[in-house]
Design a protein that fits this description.
CATH superfamily of the largest domain: Metal-dependent hydrolases
Number of helices: 10
CATH architecture of the largest domain: Alpha-Beta Barrel
Number of strands: 22
Shape: globular
Strand content: 15-25%
GO biological process, one term: N-acetylglucosamine catabolic process
Cofactor: a divalent metal cation
InterPro entries: Amidohydro-rel, GlcNAc_6-P_deAcase, Metal-dep_hydrolase_composite, Metal_Hydrolase
Distance between the termini: 34 Å
Radius of gyration: 20 Å
GO molecular function, one term: N-acetylglucosamine-6-phosphate deacetylase activity
Pfam families: Amidohydro_1
CATH topology of the largest domain: TIM Barrel
Helix content: 25-40%
Length: about 375
Amino acid sequence: MERLAYVGAAIHDGARLHENRVLLVSDGVVEGIAEAVPEGYARRDLKGDTLCPGFVDLQVNGGGGVMFDGGADVGTLRTIAAAHRRTGTVGLLPTLITDRPEASAAAVETVARAVAEGVPGILGLHLEGPHLSQARKGAHDPGLIRPIGAADMEILLGAAARLPNLMLTVAAETVTPEQITRLDAAGVIVSLGHSDAGYDACRAAFAAGARCTTHLYNAMSGLGHREPGLVGATLDGAGAAGLIADAIHVHPAAIRIAMRARPEGLFLVTDAMAPVGSEIAEFTLNGRRILRRDGRLTLADGTLAGADLTMPRAIAVMTGEVGTDPGTAIAMATGRPAALLRDRRGAGRLVGAPLSRVVRLAADYSAAAPLSEAGAAISR
């Protein structure tokens, strides 16, 4: 039996940060956190970095130079998952944005095959649309947005039965509370986003079973003093909420306000597109050209189209520009998003995890790599 003791690093268990502790690993599996190195363990000194569970990202559109769309195959998912794994994300939901019904059906089939084949990192599927608000469409194709219908419900319920996790972003005004309740009962993680609905409609959707908000602040009704909108409904204590913490999609001051309102309810997503883990300067999205410039991804008219962001970079923004304590920021990338999943598949926890799902996060939080590959360069 090989017994290793990792010393010199802070240790995050998915919920909180432990200083001056030792991570114990037996035969490639995390055994626990100790105060000192027990007899019989070989020491490994990490010199000031942080060990934590691999990151969990519930909104990943692409990576490694490719996008997840209706034409994607299992090989595409392998490429995307591998690109994000190099930066410490070991569990993700490939995300299909608004598309045709046949593309959604194909995405379900592809993810089901990837799960059956054991593709590392694939935890299920996130369908971001097409049941969204035209008024808050963002980069989604307006010609493909539509209300949810009976046929859509059957596809979604069937997908929920086949996949370990299915997340669905809808606008509160395009679905009924009864539909949300039915989806929630089937295990679908219903999230509100790309919505122009008012506070009362959003609160009714949360009461019906919606569990979170997709990329808080972006593409939704804002906080007004007479109409608080979806932002207000979320900050007033309804559901969890994902944040794109790149200091582009949301100003650090707005993140600080959200953190004060919902200190336990926020988690990080990257909303990453094809460029992550690659050198490409542009790509296409539903036939439209997306440009990569100065950390931004935009349509030709300047509309933001996803993010050029990794999870370590999001943690660095949270700890640096936002001023969040490291323990909370890391929890927002590990245990918190994992807790939303119907089937965590071991994601977001440290004790009991194989070494391949433990991440070494650099001391400045801006880069990470799987601990089992610590000999390789830590990726940004």
